[in-house]
Amino acid sequence: MEKKIAVIRGDCSSPEFVKETIRVLDKIAQKHGHTFVYEEVAMGGDAIDRYGDPLPEAELQKCLNSDSVLLGSVGGPKWDTLPGDKRPEKGLLRLRAGMGLYSNARPARIWPQLAPASPLRPDIAANGIDFIIIRELTGGVYFGEHSTIHNGTEEVATDIMEYSVHEIERIGRIGFETARKRRKKLTSVDKANVLDTSRLWRKVMHELAEEYPDVEYEDMLVDNCAMQIVKNPAQFDVIVTENMFGDILSDEASMITGSIGMIPSSSLGDTTVGVYEPIHGSAPDIAGQNIVNPMACILSAAMMLRYSFDMSEEADEIERAVGAVLDQGFRTADNQSEGCTVLGTKEITDRILEEI
Ligand code: NAD
Question: What is the pLDDT of residue 39?
Answer without folding.
Answer: 98
